[in-house]
């Protein structure tokens, strides 16, 4: 994670750029550690990047459905820390790949923010750019 504190005159905002835990067994600990940082955020906070997780099965197309319990740690992190999706445009299914002979698309990349962020930047938006190829080499 890259965590930034941006100060302008008498105003401070935080922006965190993350790469979520790619292994499912490490995700709960990742969200717990990030929640520790979230507890220190009393001002506007935007968190963006590759979360390597989804909130529910509506955020994926293709392949078998995931078990509902597999979403719990990410959902809990989002709700307990008062985070909301930033409005976005473009195709949010930003990851594509083949797993178990199924072509799958998922919303792994996103921008979340707290209420203070939305109060400061009520017209803020996130844009998913056109898919050009994998970001993995």
Automatic annotation (TrEMBL):
Positions of the Endonuclease/exonuclease/phosphatase domain: 19-114
Lineage: Eukaryota, Viridiplantae, Streptophyta, Embryophyta, Tracheophyta
Organism from which the protein derives: Microthlaspi erraticum
Protein name, entry field: Endonuclease/exonuclease/phosphatase domain-containing protein
InterPro entries: Endo/exonu/phosph_ase_sf (IPR036691), Endo/exonuclease/phosphatase (IPR005135)
Gene Ontology MF terms: catalytic activity
Any one Pfam family match given in the protein's UniProt record, by short name: Exo_endo_phos
């Amino acid at each position: 994670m890259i965590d930034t504190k941006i100060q302008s005159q008498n105003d401070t905002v935080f922006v965190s750029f993350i790469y979520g835990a790619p292994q499912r067994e490490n995700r709960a600990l990742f969200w717990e550690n990030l929640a520790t940082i979230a507890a220190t955020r009393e001002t506007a906070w935007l968190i963006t990047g590759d979360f390597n997780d989804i909130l529910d099965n509506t955020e994926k197309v293709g392949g078998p459905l995931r078990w509902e319990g597999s979403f719990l740690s990410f959902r809990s992190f989002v709700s307990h820390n008062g985070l909301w999706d930033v409005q976005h445009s473009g195709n949010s299914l930003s990851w594509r790949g083949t797993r178990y002979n199924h072509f799958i698309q998922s919303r792994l990349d996103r921008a979340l923010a707290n209420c203070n962020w939305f109060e400061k930047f009520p017209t803020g938006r996130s844009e998913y750019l056109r898919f050009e190829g994998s970001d993995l080499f």
